[in-house]
């Protein structure tokens, strides 16, 4: 009767609670989960209602008759009900819907140009740590907390900060063209074991050559225009050298090492194929050899 959309009103309320200036609300993890649960329940309820309203013959159906149609595996009903959960992240229908989006984009725009991953080093991020510490001044002993302990206390603020910084980075990429003129993109957000978001992206670039259509020379020239795998000069660009050396070089740890048996002995091998052989010359591998190489690892 108020004229306010339930979904909009619910989202606004949840957002206001999560981003409240009162730190004890943001730091209440059970409360955060309860808000998330309520959000999902509302989406499912609205989705089911919309599905039933649009299925022929269900407008005034009785509960018993509805259950009977479900038991009979009514294809139209099942299809529409499955759509009701496609906006719930993590569900099978959600990922099927995302996959169809990418398939449609590939059909319309052709193969994507770049695949990138952006992952924050939050514990070393001085600006983030300082911001979270300042916003949690009401927390007893906050000045004595390590960056690891501090960021774990306020996951909502940490996530909000990282998402805002990524939005700024994406805006830069769309306007400054550091990897070419981006015409379309798709982003998948995942959360690592420690609960921090990282962003997988595919970008379509205007005028980019396509492997298999353009010559190897054109493809190699395009890649080398934007991508480098060399370390900056340690003397002339000391800060950049340290950043690349620390964050852009793969270091094998338990998460990537796998035990395999070779020659009757067990050994640890990196599932990403590191360390890789070095080359002073650019090498372009064809798609087939890359797929075969990936399956062998």
Give structural notes.
It is a single chain. The protein has 297 residues and is α+β, with helices and mostly antiparallel strands. The protein has helices at 6-18, 23-26, 29-54, 63-71, 75-83, 92-109, 126-135, 147-153, 155-176, 216-226, 238-247, 287-296; strands at 114-118, 182-191, 197-205, 257-262, 265-270. Strand 4 and strand 5 form a beta hairpin. Helix 3 packs antiparallel against helix 5. The protein is globular. The model has no long low-confidence stretch (mean pLDDT 87).
- Read across the widest sheet, the strand sequence of neighbours is 1-3-2
Note poorly predicted spans: none
Task: Give the structural class.
Answer: alpha+beta
Largest sheet: 3 strands, antiparallel
List keywords for this structure.
alpha+beta; 5 strands; 50% helix; two-stranded antiparallel sheet; single chain; three-stranded antiparallel β-sheet; 297 residues; globular; 12 helices
Brief summary of the model shown:
50% of the residues lie in helices and 12% in strands. The protein has helices spanning 6-18, 23-26, 29-54, 63-71, 75-83, 92-109, 126-135, 147-153, 155-176, 216-226, 238-247, 287-296; strands spanning 114-118, 182-191, 197-205, 257-262, 265-270.
């Amino acid at each position: 009767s108020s004229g306010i959309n339930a979904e909009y009103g619910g989202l606004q309320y949840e957002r206001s609670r999560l981003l409240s200036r009162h730190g004890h609300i943001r730091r209440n993890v059970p409360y955060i989960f309860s808000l998330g649960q309520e959000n999902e329940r509302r989406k499912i309820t609205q989705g089911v209602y919309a599905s039933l309203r649009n299925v022929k013959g269900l407008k005034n159906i009785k509960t018993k008759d509805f259950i009977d149609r479900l038991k009979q595996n009514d294809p139209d009903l099942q299809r529409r009900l499955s759509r009701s959960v496609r906006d719930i992240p993590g569900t099978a229908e959600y990922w099927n819907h995302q996959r169809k989006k990418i398939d449609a984009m590939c059909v319309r725009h052709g193969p994507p140009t770049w695949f990138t991953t952006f992952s924050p080093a939050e514990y070393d991020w001085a600006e983030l740590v300082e911001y979270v510490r300042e916003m949690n001044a009401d927390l007893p002993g906050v000045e004595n907390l390590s960056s690891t302990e501090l960021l774990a206390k306020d996951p909502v603020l940490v996530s909000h900060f990282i998402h805002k910084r990524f939005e700024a980075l994406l805006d830069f990429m769309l306007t400054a063209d550091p990897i070419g003129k981006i015409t379309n993109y798709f982003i998948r957000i995942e959360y690592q074991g420690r609960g921090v978001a990282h962003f997988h992206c595919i970008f379509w670039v205007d005028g980019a050559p396509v492997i298999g259509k353009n010559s190897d020379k054109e493809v190699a020239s395009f890649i080398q225009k934007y991508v480098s795998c060399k370390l900056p000069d340690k003397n002339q660009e000391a800060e950049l050298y340290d950043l690349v050396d620390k964050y852009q070089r793969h270091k094998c740890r338990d998460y990537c090492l796998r035990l395999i048996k070779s020659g009757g002995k067990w050994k640890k091998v990196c599932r990403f194929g590191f360390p890789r052989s070095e080359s002073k010359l650019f090498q372009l591998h064809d798609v087939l050899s890359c797929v075969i190489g990936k399956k062998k690892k």
